[in-house]
Design brief:
The protein is built from 25 helices and 20 strands. It is α/β, with parallel strands linked by helices.
């Protein structure tokens, strides 16, 4: 049953009760809308009918039963039938009162002897007979009766207040009666008019008026009742206004209207107002509590208060907003967890060069992180024995169709015997091999009982879920990762494992490449040493044969019979000479292979380093300000790491030059204080950062006539001081320069004149390793490379460079007291040196390029709006160099090969300069430069070569091909712009 049917049933019941004479029935008015209006009208109607009925009954009882005349039905202003009924009753009462009183007055007048009065009132029936009988006796009273009747009719019947009875020629009782009638009319007029004014003011909303006319009896009670009603209405209006102002205007919730001594409708209205204020208070406070909790970061609260309508919609919207914020926060937390854990484990892998160590680290960290109780790391290895093969072996195996093996090199919770052979599978064999073959993750849920049980000291359990993730890099299978858990892996953990295996593929590939590079370099060194030893043996044999030949020639005259033996020996000598020449050619060929390898390695490493360092520099400078401080710090760290890699490349090239005997020195007068200032400025910040004491000093008059190669001296001192700071944890490092005493000068420097001793003191290294620290790729102890990093090339290069400078390096060390590296260097370079080819020194310096600094490129008028053609087949370098050139205000055209560059030059005569890479597919940089120089219009066009080729002779070859300038990658933006500015004449 709906609300309308219920309302109609209640209305029908009320009407039937009224029909049956029951006027106590009321309909509930708390319903809203039309049902509430119907209930209010019905209740008002029943109340009016009840009041009319009560008043009519009272007047009938007073007049008919008690004989009390003058009674009136007092009903508030009404209309329609109710007004007609009230007026009819009052009219009946007035008529009856007038007739009886008129008769009584006439009878009284007659009883007192006043016969001037008559009964003039209208009458019918028996009253009419009585009237005619009395009028016959009181004709003289007719005029008096007429006046009294007129006044009574005006006041009591017509409602015309203010009327007065005017009777001439009367006195005595009749005069008193006339005066009393007029007094009654005045009092009634004043009282009724005062009541009408107050009720009219109340109806108009003015609650300040009250009835102040004098009254007695029932009129006094009416006056008191109306005044009390006005006071209660004023109090109620004031309270309702106060509550509405506090809640609606001032925002003060919790207010309640307090109206004393009220009941009925006023009490219900007060309670409804208070209920409204209470509901609004509860709803707003509940919403405020939830929004405050959200502002504090508490997303567990929701609005639970009951609220209909628009407030309910607001409640639902706020709860939906909180739920959305909760879901967003949870998603951000999961992303932060992924990034944090990936960065943490990746950071732990960095710096480690052994794959087994890395695998054990992963097995120690990853399974507990994803709540796995079993894990195994499989590494792809070539060769039938599972060992990692060389490139040639790999090619042979694959040519024969043999897939690599997946060998378990580390595990977590594996119940296998540690002494047993590791598990191994071919690619495609078992789920591990199948996941590697398909390059796809394999997940097995609901494992059968007894499959890969997880064992502990007190029992065992069966895992429920198994996951196998292949480790793939650029389509090549590098290994696999197998994990098992007692419970299914959470989606967050699955995402972590998939992203981690992608990252792991890069790391494993890098470690494998590094290992192969180290192996190739070691083989090259061993081959070089072996060829050198064999060459020495052959030279010794040649000298021995030469001595034998001389002896045979001296005895030729005496030993003619041995000529055939001598000829045979000569033939052997010739064979030995040919063998020696063949060995020499092999040695030269090995040296050429090594040089080509280093040149290619330098190019392949410098090319990506160029774009990496330039873009990292641009990000660190943050010219547009759209990066956070932490993101700019990340870019700075990337730039620093690239700089370290560039330094490693330069060290390897220096070592190659030293071994090949192609490192040149350029002696010149050198101010010692300038060298010491360079060391102090370079390393004091490093010492301060590590909390070490650092001192640089020189004895008086030391080094006043120093003649040497300043750049090589700086290189040696830089390596010695850097090495000392790296291995010193507490205390300090010092550099002291003084003249060496004659007894301490090493034997190779005897007779070299004054010798300077550059002493670098640190905390010391084990004595048994004093010689090994000067070997290539060696450090102070077996754990130093793990604790401090580095390649171990610095001291090896420093010893060889010191020999080129005519000096030597010695070391003394006492554990617990300190170590001292001493560079002995002749103060006056008196050695004879071969004349060097023009430009050789410049070319060598071009090969040892440092990392680009973080200084921002400067936009000046010399470069702005100039057009440059960039010819490079590496999109990374094209992007990085384009950003640098555009930041200087230049217009940039790009071509990815030489033919495209020549076509662009022909189509764009506005090109002011060409930036050319040398190593490109098809038409390389040399041929492209020669083709440009062959064009008459472009014969004088500046061509600046920017290349990663940094081996001796590369610069000379580029300039011979027609290049205007030669810059080695990675190139500093300011150096590149300076070179361009040099070749671009002002307009």
């Amino acid at each position: 049953m709906d609300e309308t049917d219920r309302t109609l049933e209640q209305l029908l019941a009320g009407l039937m009760a009224v029909r049956d004479g029951n006027l106590d029935t009321r309909l509930p008015e708390d319903a809203g809308g039309l049902p509430g209006n119907i209930a209010a009208v019905f209740n008002g109607m029943v109340a009016q009918l009840s009041l009319v009925t009560t008043e009519v009954t009272r007047v009938a009882q007073e007049v008919g039963g008690e004989g009390r005349l003058g009674g009136q039905a007092r009903v508030p202003p009404v209309g329609g039938v109710w007004r007609e009924l009230t007026d009819g009753v009052n009219s009946m009462a007035d008529n009856l009162t007038s007739q009886v009183r008129n008769i009584s007055q006439v009878a009284t007048a007659v009883a007192r002897g006043d016969l001037t009065q008559k009964i003039r009132v209208d009458a019918r029936g028996e009253i009419l007979e009585l009237k005619e009988t009395i009028n016959t006796m009181v004709e003289r009273l007719s005029s008096f009766a007429e006046e009294v009747t007129r006044v009574a009719r005006e006041v009591g019947t017509e409602g015309n207040l203010g009327g007065q009875a005017t009777v001439h020629g009367v006195s005595g009782t009749w005069m008193d009666l006339t005066n009393n009638v007029n007094s009654m009319a005045d009092n009634l007029t004043n009282q009724v008019r005062n009541i009408a004014q107050v009720t009219t003011a109340v109806a108009e909303g003015d609650l300040t008026r009250k009835i102040d006319v004098d009254a007695r009896g029932e009129i006094l009670e009416l006056k008191t009742t109306i005044n009390t009603m006005v006071d209660q209405l004023g109090s109620f209006a004031a309270e309702v206004t106060r509550v509405a102002r506090e809640v609606g205007s001032e925002g003060r919730l919790g207010g309640q209207a307090e109206v004393a001594d009220v009941s009925g409708t006023w009490r219900r209205l007060t309670e409804n107002v208070n209920e409204l204020a209470g509901n609004l208070t509860r709803q707003v406070r509940a919403i405020a509590e939830v929004t405050s909790a959200v502002a504090r970061g508490d997303l567990t609260r929701t609005v639970t208060v009951e609220a209909p309508g628009e407030v309910g919609a607001l409640k639902d919207n706020i709860n939906s907003m909180v739920e959305s914020l909760r879901a967003t926060t949870r998603g951000n937390e999961e992303k932060d967890w992924l990034k944090t854990q990936l960065a943490r484990i990746s950071g732990g892998i960095q710096g480690r060069r052994d794959l087994t160590t890395v695998a054990r680290l992963i097995m120690r960290e990853v399974p507990p992180l994803v709540h796995a109780q079993y894990g195994c790391f499989f590494l792809a290895q070539e060769g039938p024995d599972g060992s990692e093969g060389s490139e040639g072996a790999e090619g042979a195996d694959r040519a024969e169709g043999q897939a690599p093996h997946l060998v378990a090199i580390a595990s977590y919770g594996l119940p296998d015997d540690p002494a047993a052979a590791p598990r191994r599978f071919r690619v495609g064999q078992s789920l591990v091999g199948q996941a590697a073959a398909d390059h796809r993750v394999v997940v097995v849920d609901e494992l059968p009982p007894g499959y890969a049980p997880v064992l502990t000291g007190t029992g065992s359990a069966d895992p429920s879920t198994l996951i196998v993730l292949p480790i793939v890099f650029e389509g090549q299978v590098l290994g696999a990762l197998e994990l098992a858990s007692l419970r299914p892996f959470a989606p967050l953990h699955r995402d972590f494992l998939e992203q981690f295996t992608e990252l792991l593929g890069v790391n494993v590939s890098s470690l494998t490449a590094n290992a192969r590079t180290d192996e190739l370099l070691e083989r090259s060194q061993l081959l070089t040493a072996e060829l050198s030893a064999r060459s020495g043996e052959l030279q010794a044999r040649q000298r021995e044969l030469q001595r034998s030949n001389a002896e045979l020639q001296d005895k030729a005259a005496l030993l003619a019979d041995r000529n055939r033996d001598i000829e045979r020996k000569n033939h052997q000598i010739e064979q030995a000479r040919q063998e020696l020449e063949e060995r020499a050619r092999e040695l030269a060929r090995a040296s050429l292979y090594k040089s080509e390898f280093l040149a290619n390695m330098s190019h392949e490493l410098r090319t990506p380093l160029n774009s990496l360092l330039i873009l990292a520099q641009l990000l660190a400078q943050n010219p547009q300000g759209n990066l956070t401080e932490k993101q700019a710090d990340y870019a700075t760290v990337i730039h620093s790491a690239g700089s370290d890699l560039l330094q490693l490349i330069n060290d390897i090239l220096d070592l190659s030059k030293v071994e090949a005997g192609r490192m040149d020195v350029h002696p010149e007068p050198v101010p010692l204080h300038r060298v010491l200032d360079y060391v102090d400025v370079t390393f004091r910040p490093v010492a301060d950062e590590r909390g070490l004491e650092f001192t640089v000093s020189a004895a008086p008059s030391a080094g006043e006539g120093l003649v040497t190669d300043e750049s090589r001296l700086r290189q040696v001192l830089r390596n010695l001081v850097s090495n000392a700071l790296k291995f010193t944890r507490t205390g300090g490092v010092s550099l002291r320069v003084q003249h060496a005493d004659a007894q301490e000068v090493p034997a190779p420097l005897g007779g070299a004149g004054p010798v300077l001793a550059f002493r670098v003191v640190d905390t010391g290294i084990p004595g048994e390793q004093l010689e090994s620290v000067f070997d290539a790729f060696q450090q102070g102890d077996s754990g130093a490379d793990r604790a401090y990093g580095g390649t171990g090339l610095g001291l090896s290069i420093s010893r060889e460079v010191s020999k080129l400078l005519g000096g030597t390096i010695t070391v003394e060390s006492t554990m617990g007291q300190g170590s001292c590296f001493t560079l002995y260097l002749p103060e006056h370079d008196g050695r004879e040196r071969a004349a060097q080819a023009p430009g050789a020194g410049d070319e060598e310096r071009e090969g040892a390029v440092g990392a680009p600094s973080l200084a921002a490129p400067v936009d000046d008028e010399g470069l702005r709006d100039r057009t440059v053609l960039l010819v490079d087949d590496d999109p990374r370098n094209v992007y990085a160099l384009t950003e640098v050139l555009k930041s200087a205000g230049m217009q940039v055209l790009t071509a990815d090969n030489g033919e495209a560059g020549i076509r662009l030059l022909a189509a764009h005569p506005e090109v002011d300069l060409v930036v050319m890479d040398l190593m490109m597919a098809g038409l390389d940089g040399y041929a492209t430069t020669r083709a440009i120089r062959a064009m008459p219009r472009l014969a004088r066009l500046p061509v600046v070569v920017v290349t990663a080729k940094a081996m001796p002779g590369d610069r000379t070859e580029a300039l011979a091909a027609g290049a205007s300038d030669y810059v080695v990658k990675p190139v500093a933006p300011d150096r590149l712009l300076t070179a361009l500015r040099t070749w671009l004449a002002p307009r």
